[in-house]
Amino acid sequence: MTKVVEISPTTRHEGHSKLTLKVDDQGIVERGDWLSITPVRGIEKLAIGKTMEQVPKIASRVCGICPIAHTLASTEAMEASIGCEIPEDAKLLRVILHAANRLHSIALHNILILPDFYIPGTETKFNMFTKEEPARSVMARISRIREIGQTIGAIAGGEAIHPSNPRIGGMYQNVSSRAKQKMADLAKEGLVLAHEQMEFMLEVIRNMQNRGFVEVGGKQIPIPKTLGYHNQGVMATSPMYGSSSLDEKPMWDIARWKETRPWDWYMGEVTIDLEDPSYPFGGTTKVGTKANPRMEACNGVPMYDGQPVEVGPRARLSTFKNFDEKGTFAQHIARQMEYPDCCYTILKCLDDLNTSGKVLADNIPLGDGSLGWAANEAPRGTDVHLAKVKDGRVLWYEMLVPTTWNFPTCSRALAGAPWEIAEMVVRAYDPCVSCATHMIVLDEENKIVAQKLMQW
Protein backbone atom coordinates (compact mmCIF):
# COMPACT_ATOMS: atom_id res chain seq x y z
CA MET A 1 0.00 0.00 0.00
CA THR A 2 1.40 3.39 -1.03
CA LYS A 3 2.24 5.83 1.74
CA VAL A 4 3.55 9.39 1.69
CA VAL A 5 6.64 10.57 3.58
CA GLU A 6 8.13 14.04 3.46
CA ILE A 7 11.63 15.38 4.13
CA SER A 8 11.41 19.12 4.67
CA PRO A 9 13.71 20.90 4.39
CA THR A 10 16.47 18.96 2.68
CA THR A 11 19.97 19.66 3.97
CA ARG A 12 23.60 20.31 3.06
CA HIS A 13 22.94 22.48 0.03
CA GLU A 14 22.13 26.13 -0.64
CA GLY A 15 18.58 27.35 -0.19
CA HIS A 16 15.46 25.50 0.97
CA SER A 17 13.81 22.58 -0.78
CA LYS A 18 11.70 19.57 0.18
CA LEU A 19 11.04 16.00 -0.90
CA THR A 20 7.51 14.61 -1.02
CA LEU A 21 7.74 10.87 -1.64
CA LYS A 22 5.19 8.16 -2.38
CA VAL A 23 6.64 4.86 -1.19
CA ASP A 24 5.62 1.20 -1.20
CA ASP A 25 5.41 -1.18 1.78
CA GLN A 26 9.20 -1.70 1.66
CA GLY A 27 9.87 2.05 1.74
CA ILE A 28 10.96 2.19 -1.91
CA VAL A 29 10.10 5.40 -3.74
CA GLU A 30 7.40 4.93 -6.35
CA ARG A 31 7.19 8.63 -7.14
CA GLY A 32 9.27 11.49 -5.83
CA ASP A 33 8.75 15.24 -6.09
CA TRP A 34 11.70 17.50 -5.30
CA LEU A 35 10.77 21.18 -5.22
CA SER A 36 11.95 24.60 -4.13
CA ILE A 37 10.34 26.17 -1.08
CA THR A 38 12.77 29.10 -1.02
CA PRO A 39 11.10 32.56 -0.99
CA VAL A 40 10.81 34.01 -4.48
CA ARG A 41 13.67 36.24 -5.65
CA GLY A 42 11.90 38.05 -8.50
CA ILE A 43 15.14 38.89 -10.32
CA GLU A 44 13.53 38.78 -13.77
CA LYS A 45 10.88 41.29 -12.72
CA LEU A 46 13.47 43.56 -11.06
CA ALA A 47 15.48 43.57 -14.29
CA ILE A 48 12.78 45.14 -16.43
CA GLY A 49 13.50 48.81 -17.12
CA LYS A 50 16.99 48.68 -15.62
CA THR A 51 20.09 49.47 -17.66
CA MET A 52 21.94 46.59 -19.24
CA GLU A 53 24.90 47.34 -16.94
CA GLN A 54 22.75 47.12 -13.82
CA VAL A 55 21.09 43.78 -14.52
CA PRO A 56 24.18 41.50 -14.27
CA LYS A 57 24.87 43.06 -10.85
CA ILE A 58 21.29 42.33 -9.81
CA ALA A 59 21.39 38.80 -11.24
CA SER A 60 24.56 37.93 -9.34
CA ARG A 61 22.78 38.77 -6.06
CA VAL A 62 20.28 35.94 -6.53
CA CYS A 63 22.61 34.01 -4.18
CA GLY A 64 26.19 33.99 -2.94
CA ILE A 65 27.14 30.50 -4.14
CA CYS A 66 27.12 30.91 -7.93
CA PRO A 67 27.23 34.69 -8.56
CA ILE A 68 30.11 34.38 -11.01
CA ALA A 69 28.12 32.12 -13.34
CA HIS A 70 25.15 34.48 -13.16
CA THR A 71 27.29 37.56 -13.73
CA LEU A 72 28.92 36.06 -16.81
CA ALA A 73 25.73 34.56 -18.28
CA SER A 74 23.79 37.78 -17.67
CA THR A 75 26.51 40.00 -19.11
CA GLU A 76 26.84 37.85 -22.21
CA ALA A 77 23.06 37.67 -22.68
CA MET A 78 23.07 41.49 -22.83
CA GLU A 79 25.95 41.42 -25.31
CA ALA A 80 24.10 38.84 -27.40
CA SER A 81 20.99 41.00 -27.48
CA ILE A 82 22.86 44.14 -28.58
CA GLY A 83 25.27 42.27 -30.89
CA CYS A 84 28.49 43.20 -29.08
CA GLU A 85 31.64 41.12 -29.65
CA ILE A 86 34.29 41.46 -26.93
CA PRO A 87 38.11 41.43 -27.28
CA GLU A 88 39.92 38.11 -26.96
CA ASP A 89 41.84 39.10 -23.83
CA ALA A 90 38.58 40.04 -22.11
CA LYS A 91 37.20 36.60 -22.95
CA LEU A 92 40.31 34.94 -21.55
CA LEU A 93 39.90 36.79 -18.25
CA ARG A 94 36.26 35.68 -18.07
CA VAL A 95 37.22 32.04 -18.66
CA ILE A 96 39.90 32.26 -15.95
CA LEU A 97 37.32 33.71 -13.55
CA HIS A 98 34.85 30.96 -14.46
CA ALA A 99 37.35 28.11 -14.06
CA ALA A 100 38.54 29.47 -10.70
CA ASN A 101 34.94 29.54 -9.49
CA ARG A 102 34.37 25.93 -10.58
CA LEU A 103 37.54 24.84 -8.77
CA HIS A 104 36.32 26.46 -5.57
CA SER A 105 32.81 25.05 -5.99
CA ILE A 106 33.89 21.43 -6.45
CA ALA A 107 35.92 21.65 -3.25
CA LEU A 108 32.98 23.16 -1.37
CA HIS A 109 30.72 20.35 -2.59
CA ASN A 110 33.20 17.79 -1.25
CA ILE A 111 32.60 19.17 2.24
CA LEU A 112 28.83 18.90 1.82
CA ILE A 113 28.72 15.29 0.58
CA LEU A 114 31.51 13.59 2.55
CA PRO A 115 29.35 13.05 5.69
CA ASP A 116 27.26 10.66 3.52
CA PHE A 117 30.36 8.54 2.81
CA TYR A 118 32.57 6.13 4.71
CA ILE A 119 36.31 6.30 5.25
CA PRO A 120 37.54 3.50 2.94
CA GLY A 121 38.32 0.29 4.80
CA THR A 122 36.22 1.29 7.82
CA GLU A 123 32.63 1.47 9.01
CA THR A 124 33.12 5.11 10.03
CA LYS A 125 31.46 7.97 8.22
CA PHE A 126 33.36 11.17 7.57
CA ASN A 127 33.17 13.97 10.11
CA MET A 128 34.74 16.92 8.33
CA PHE A 129 35.18 18.92 11.53
CA THR A 130 37.10 16.43 13.61
CA LYS A 131 40.82 16.71 14.32
CA GLU A 132 41.25 13.05 13.47
CA GLU A 133 42.88 11.78 10.29
CA PRO A 134 42.16 11.48 7.41
CA ALA A 135 39.48 14.17 7.77
CA ARG A 136 41.92 16.76 9.13
CA SER A 137 44.31 16.50 6.16
CA VAL A 138 41.48 16.31 3.65
CA MET A 139 39.82 19.40 5.09
CA ALA A 140 43.13 21.28 4.98
CA ARG A 141 43.57 20.37 1.32
CA ILE A 142 39.99 21.35 0.46
CA SER A 143 40.40 24.68 2.26
CA ARG A 144 43.56 25.46 0.32
CA ILE A 145 41.93 24.56 -3.02
CA ARG A 146 39.04 26.87 -2.19
CA GLU A 147 41.46 29.63 -1.22
CA ILE A 148 43.34 29.24 -4.50
CA GLY A 149 40.12 29.38 -6.51
CA GLN A 150 38.85 32.43 -4.67
CA THR A 151 42.17 34.27 -4.94
CA ILE A 152 42.45 33.70 -8.69
CA GLY A 153 38.82 34.76 -9.02
CA ALA A 154 39.46 37.95 -7.08
CA ILE A 155 42.44 38.84 -9.26
CA ALA A 156 40.70 38.20 -12.59
CA GLY A 157 37.20 39.30 -11.55
CA GLY A 158 37.77 42.09 -9.05
CA GLU A 159 36.00 40.16 -6.29
CA ALA A 160 35.58 36.45 -5.74
CA ILE A 161 31.91 36.59 -4.71
CA HIS A 162 30.16 39.26 -6.80
CA PRO A 163 32.78 40.04 -9.47
CA SER A 164 33.09 43.72 -10.35
CA ASN A 165 35.49 43.52 -13.31
CA PRO A 166 33.15 42.02 -15.97
CA ARG A 167 31.09 44.62 -17.82
CA ILE A 168 29.05 44.91 -21.01
CA GLY A 169 31.62 44.94 -23.80
CA GLY A 170 34.36 43.06 -21.97
CA MET A 171 36.14 43.88 -18.72
CA TYR A 172 36.82 47.12 -16.89
CA GLN A 173 40.54 46.43 -16.76
CA ASN A 174 43.22 43.94 -17.69
CA VAL A 175 45.57 42.43 -15.12
CA SER A 176 49.20 43.31 -14.60
CA SER A 177 52.03 40.99 -15.58
CA ARG A 178 52.72 40.49 -11.88
CA ALA A 179 49.09 39.50 -11.26
CA LYS A 180 49.26 37.11 -14.22
CA GLN A 181 52.30 35.41 -12.69
CA LYS A 182 50.57 35.22 -9.31
CA MET A 183 47.58 33.46 -10.86
CA ALA A 184 49.89 31.05 -12.71
CA ASP A 185 51.76 30.15 -9.51
CA LEU A 186 48.47 29.55 -7.70
CA ALA A 187 47.07 27.44 -10.56
CA LYS A 188 50.18 25.24 -10.59
CA GLU A 189 49.87 24.67 -6.84
CA GLY A 190 46.16 24.06 -7.29
CA LEU A 191 46.77 21.50 -10.02
CA VAL A 192 48.81 19.29 -7.69
CA LEU A 193 46.20 19.56 -4.94
CA ALA A 194 43.33 19.02 -7.42
CA HIS A 195 44.87 15.75 -8.62
CA GLU A 196 45.36 14.60 -5.03
CA GLN A 197 41.81 15.50 -4.05
CA MET A 198 40.34 13.94 -7.18
CA GLU A 199 42.09 10.62 -6.54
CA PHE A 200 41.03 10.66 -2.89
CA MET A 201 37.40 11.40 -3.73
CA LEU A 202 37.28 8.76 -6.46
CA GLU A 203 38.46 6.17 -3.94
CA VAL A 204 35.82 7.28 -1.43
CA ILE A 205 33.03 7.28 -4.03
CA ARG A 206 33.98 3.88 -5.51
CA ASN A 207 34.15 2.46 -1.99
CA MET A 208 30.59 3.65 -1.36
CA GLN A 209 29.41 2.44 -4.74
CA ASN A 210 30.60 -1.07 -3.87
CA ARG A 211 28.92 -1.14 -0.46
CA GLY A 212 25.65 -2.93 0.05
CA PHE A 213 24.16 -0.51 2.54
CA VAL A 214 24.51 2.84 4.29
CA GLU A 215 23.52 3.72 7.84
CA VAL A 216 20.84 6.40 8.21
CA GLY A 217 19.31 7.19 11.58
CA GLY A 218 20.72 4.01 13.11
CA LYS A 219 19.29 1.76 10.36
CA GLN A 220 21.03 -0.12 7.59
CA ILE A 221 19.57 1.07 4.29
CA PRO A 222 20.37 -0.90 1.10
CA ILE A 223 22.01 0.99 -1.78
CA PRO A 224 20.53 0.05 -5.18
CA LYS A 225 23.04 -0.43 -7.99
CA THR A 226 20.84 1.88 -10.04
CA LEU A 227 20.64 4.65 -7.43
CA GLY A 228 19.69 7.91 -9.15
CA TYR A 229 19.14 6.43 -12.61
CA HIS A 230 16.62 8.18 -14.87
CA ASN A 231 15.41 8.04 -18.45
CA GLN A 232 15.70 11.76 -19.17
CA GLY A 233 18.31 13.28 -21.44
CA VAL A 234 21.36 15.42 -20.67
CA MET A 235 22.21 18.95 -21.77
CA ALA A 236 25.53 20.79 -21.90
CA THR A 237 26.93 23.55 -24.10
CA SER A 238 30.67 23.20 -23.45
CA PRO A 239 33.08 21.09 -21.38
CA MET A 240 34.22 24.23 -19.56
CA TYR A 241 32.81 27.66 -20.40
CA GLY A 242 29.61 27.95 -22.43
CA SER A 243 27.98 29.39 -25.55
CA SER A 244 25.80 32.28 -26.70
CA SER A 245 23.53 33.23 -29.58
CA LEU A 246 26.42 35.28 -30.99
CA ASP A 247 28.45 32.11 -31.65
CA GLU A 248 28.87 30.93 -35.22
CA LYS A 249 27.50 27.57 -34.09
CA PRO A 250 25.50 28.14 -30.87
CA MET A 251 25.39 25.08 -28.61
CA TRP A 252 21.90 25.76 -27.23
CA ASP A 253 18.69 26.18 -29.22
CA ILE A 254 15.94 28.37 -27.84
CA ALA A 255 13.41 26.69 -30.15
CA ARG A 256 13.95 23.40 -28.30
CA TRP A 257 13.15 24.96 -24.90
CA LYS A 258 9.72 25.14 -23.34
CA GLU A 259 8.83 25.88 -19.72
CA THR A 260 5.80 24.60 -17.88
CA ARG A 261 4.37 25.50 -14.49
CA PRO A 262 4.67 23.33 -11.37
CA TRP A 263 1.01 22.30 -11.31
CA ASP A 264 1.54 20.66 -14.71
CA TRP A 265 4.33 18.51 -13.30
CA TYR A 266 4.08 17.90 -9.54
CA MET A 267 1.57 15.81 -7.58
CA GLY A 268 -1.46 17.48 -6.02
CA GLU A 269 -2.56 17.53 -2.38
CA VAL A 270 -1.55 14.53 -0.28
CA THR A 271 -1.62 13.68 3.42
CA ILE A 272 1.55 12.51 5.15
CA ASP A 273 0.91 9.02 6.58
CA LEU A 274 4.46 7.79 7.17
CA GLU A 275 6.74 9.40 9.73
CA ASP A 276 10.20 8.55 11.06
CA PRO A 277 11.36 10.48 14.17
CA SER A 278 14.83 8.90 13.88
CA TYR A 279 15.57 10.45 10.50
CA PRO A 280 18.42 12.94 10.91
CA PHE A 281 17.97 15.61 12.04
CA GLY A 282 14.67 16.05 13.85
CA GLY A 283 12.67 13.46 11.96
CA THR A 284 10.41 13.69 8.94
CA THR A 285 7.18 15.69 8.59
CA LYS A 286 4.47 14.69 11.09
CA VAL A 287 1.71 12.26 10.12
CA GLY A 288 -1.52 14.05 9.23
CA THR A 289 0.23 17.07 7.70
CA LYS A 290 -1.10 18.18 4.32
CA ALA A 291 1.33 18.66 1.44
CA ASN A 292 0.66 19.99 -2.03
CA PRO A 293 3.81 20.11 -4.19
CA ARG A 294 1.81 21.42 -7.14
CA MET A 295 0.94 24.57 -5.20
CA GLU A 296 3.98 24.81 -2.92
CA ALA A 297 6.67 24.65 -5.60
CA CYS A 298 8.43 27.96 -6.19
CA ASN A 299 10.22 26.73 -9.31
CA GLY A 300 9.24 26.46 -12.94
CA VAL A 301 9.85 23.25 -14.92
CA PRO A 302 11.94 23.78 -18.08
CA MET A 303 11.92 21.20 -20.86
CA TYR A 304 14.33 20.62 -23.75
CA ASP A 305 12.94 18.68 -26.70
CA GLY A 306 9.79 18.15 -24.66
CA GLN A 307 11.38 16.50 -21.63
CA PRO A 308 13.36 17.43 -18.54
CA VAL A 309 17.12 17.11 -18.86
CA GLU A 310 20.03 16.63 -16.48
CA VAL A 311 22.67 19.36 -16.46
CA GLY A 312 26.00 19.42 -14.65
CA PRO A 313 29.29 17.56 -14.66
CA ARG A 314 27.92 14.18 -15.77
CA ALA A 315 26.02 15.87 -18.59
CA ARG A 316 29.18 17.68 -19.71
CA LEU A 317 31.35 14.57 -19.64
CA SER A 318 28.65 12.52 -21.33
CA THR A 319 28.22 15.11 -24.10
CA PHE A 320 31.85 15.95 -24.76
CA LYS A 321 34.04 13.15 -23.33
CA ASN A 322 32.11 9.90 -23.88
CA PHE A 323 31.50 9.35 -20.18
CA ASP A 324 28.90 6.58 -20.04
CA GLU A 325 28.25 5.95 -16.34
CA LYS A 326 24.82 6.81 -14.91
CA GLY A 327 23.18 7.70 -11.64
CA THR A 328 24.13 9.32 -8.37
CA PHE A 329 27.67 7.99 -8.08
CA ALA A 330 28.40 8.83 -11.71
CA GLN A 331 27.54 12.46 -11.00
CA HIS A 332 29.97 12.49 -8.10
CA ILE A 333 32.69 10.82 -10.17
CA ALA A 334 32.23 13.23 -13.07
CA ARG A 335 32.48 16.22 -10.74
CA GLN A 336 35.83 15.05 -9.37
CA MET A 337 37.11 14.48 -12.90
CA GLU A 338 36.55 18.19 -13.59
CA TYR A 339 39.01 19.19 -10.84
CA PRO A 340 42.23 19.19 -12.93
CA ASP A 341 40.53 20.71 -15.98
CA CYS A 342 39.89 23.87 -13.99
CA CYS A 343 43.60 24.40 -13.38
CA TYR A 344 44.63 23.35 -16.88
CA THR A 345 42.13 25.84 -18.32
CA ILE A 346 43.45 28.66 -16.16
CA LEU A 347 47.05 27.92 -17.13
CA LYS A 348 46.19 27.71 -20.85
CA CYS A 349 44.31 31.03 -20.73
CA LEU A 350 47.18 32.69 -18.88
CA ASP A 351 49.61 31.47 -21.56
CA ASP A 352 47.44 33.17 -24.18
CA LEU A 353 46.66 36.32 -22.19
CA ASN A 354 48.32 39.55 -23.29
CA THR A 355 48.38 41.83 -20.26
CA SER A 356 48.79 44.81 -22.58
CA GLY A 357 45.87 43.80 -24.76
CA LYS A 358 42.60 45.71 -24.83
CA VAL A 359 39.69 44.30 -22.85
CA LEU A 360 36.83 46.61 -23.90
CA ALA A 361 35.00 46.62 -27.22
CA ASP A 362 35.42 49.73 -29.39
CA ASN A 363 31.67 49.92 -30.00
CA ILE A 364 28.95 48.95 -27.53
CA PRO A 365 25.51 49.25 -29.18
CA LEU A 366 22.46 50.13 -27.11
CA GLY A 367 20.25 47.46 -28.66
CA ASP A 368 17.04 47.33 -30.69
CA GLY A 369 15.08 44.85 -28.58
CA SER A 370 16.43 41.71 -30.24
CA LEU A 371 16.49 38.51 -28.21
CA GLY A 372 19.87 37.28 -27.08
CA TRP A 373 20.91 34.43 -24.82
CA ALA A 374 24.03 33.11 -23.16
CA ALA A 375 24.68 29.77 -21.47
CA ASN A 376 27.40 29.53 -18.84
CA GLU A 377 28.43 26.04 -17.77
CA ALA A 378 28.20 26.80 -14.07
CA PRO A 379 29.63 24.27 -11.59
CA ARG A 380 26.12 22.82 -11.17
CA GLY A 381 25.25 22.83 -14.87
CA THR A 382 23.99 24.92 -17.77
CA ASP A 383 22.96 28.41 -16.64
CA VAL A 384 21.01 30.07 -19.45
CA HIS A 385 20.13 33.77 -19.31
CA LEU A 386 17.95 35.40 -21.98
CA ALA A 387 17.46 39.12 -22.57
CA LYS A 388 15.94 41.76 -24.81
CA VAL A 389 17.72 45.12 -24.65
CA LYS A 390 16.57 48.32 -26.34
CA ASP A 391 18.21 51.72 -26.02
CA GLY A 392 20.40 50.37 -23.24
CA ARG A 393 17.49 49.17 -21.07
CA VAL A 394 16.19 45.67 -20.48
CA LEU A 395 12.72 44.95 -21.87
CA TRP A 396 12.58 41.27 -20.90
CA TYR A 397 14.76 38.89 -18.90
CA GLU A 398 14.75 35.18 -18.06
CA MET A 399 17.05 32.92 -16.02
CA LEU A 400 17.10 29.15 -16.56
CA VAL A 401 19.52 28.12 -13.84
CA PRO A 402 21.02 24.64 -13.30
CA THR A 403 18.85 23.54 -10.39
CA THR A 404 15.73 24.61 -12.27
CA TRP A 405 16.68 22.14 -15.00
CA ASN A 406 17.56 19.45 -12.46
CA PHE A 407 14.47 19.63 -10.21
CA PRO A 408 12.21 17.54 -12.49
CA THR A 409 14.99 15.21 -13.63
CA CYS A 410 16.06 14.42 -10.09
CA SER A 411 12.41 13.94 -9.11
CA ARG A 412 12.18 11.04 -11.57
CA ALA A 413 15.62 9.75 -10.56
CA LEU A 414 14.30 9.14 -7.02
CA ALA A 415 12.12 6.22 -8.13
CA GLY A 416 13.49 2.88 -6.97
CA ALA A 417 15.53 4.28 -4.09
CA PRO A 418 14.80 3.64 -0.41
CA TRP A 419 13.29 6.91 0.76
CA GLU A 420 15.88 7.24 3.54
CA ILE A 421 18.63 7.91 0.98
CA ALA A 422 16.63 10.23 -1.28
CA GLU A 423 18.71 13.17 -0.03
CA MET A 424 21.86 11.43 -1.24
CA VAL A 425 20.40 11.58 -4.75
CA VAL A 426 19.53 15.26 -4.35
CA ARG A 427 22.97 16.19 -3.05
CA ALA A 428 24.63 14.63 -6.10
CA TYR A 429 23.09 17.43 -8.17
CA ASP A 430 24.76 20.02 -5.86
CA PRO A 431 21.59 22.11 -5.58
CA CYS A 432 21.71 25.88 -5.52
CA VAL A 433 18.04 26.46 -4.81
CA SER A 434 17.68 30.23 -4.28
CA CYS A 435 18.41 31.13 -7.89
CA ALA A 436 15.93 28.46 -9.06
CA THR A 437 12.98 30.22 -7.41
CA HIS A 438 10.63 31.98 -9.84
CA MET A 439 7.08 31.37 -8.63
CA ILE A 440 5.05 32.86 -5.78
CA VAL A 441 1.72 32.15 -4.06
CA LEU A 442 -0.48 35.23 -4.45
CA ASP A 443 -3.63 34.08 -2.67
CA GLU A 444 -2.72 32.07 0.43
CA GLU A 445 -6.32 31.25 1.33
CA ASN A 446 -7.22 29.80 -2.06
CA LYS A 447 -3.70 28.59 -2.90
CA ILE A 448 -3.58 30.39 -6.22
CA VAL A 449 -0.05 30.34 -7.62
CA ALA A 450 1.12 33.22 -9.78
CA GLN A 451 2.04 32.73 -13.36
CA LYS A 452 5.60 33.77 -14.11
CA LEU A 453 6.17 37.46 -13.56
CA MET A 454 7.47 38.18 -17.04
CA GLN A 455 6.18 38.34 -20.60
CA TRP A 456 6.84 35.64 -23.15
User: Major beta sheet, specifics?
Assistant: 4 strands, antiparallel
- In CATH terms, what is the fold-level topology? Cytochrome-c3 Hydrogenase, chain B
Q: Tally the structural domains.
A: 1
Distance between the termini: 43 Å
CATH superfamily, called what?
Answer: Cytochrome-c3 Hydrogenase, chain B
Q: Pick out the low-confidence regions.
A: 450-456
Structure, described:
This protein is of the alpha+beta class. The protein has one domain: Cytochrome-c3 Hydrogenase, chain B (Orthogonal Bundle), CATH 1.10.645. It has helices at 43-47, 54-60, 67-82, 88-113, 135-157, 177-209, 293-296, 313-320, 327-337, 339-352, 402-413, 422-428, and strands at residues 3-7, 17-23, 29-36, 166-167, 170-171, 213-216, 219-222, 233-234, 242-244, 257-260, 270-271, 290-291, 301-304, 309-310, 368-378, 381-390, 393-400, 441-443, 448-449. A 4-stranded antiparallel beta sheet has the order 9-15-16-17. Strands 1-2-3 form a 3-stranded antiparallel beta sheet. A two-stranded antiparallel sheet has the order 4-5. Strand 4 (166-167) and strand 5 form a beta hairpin. The two termini are 43 Å apart.
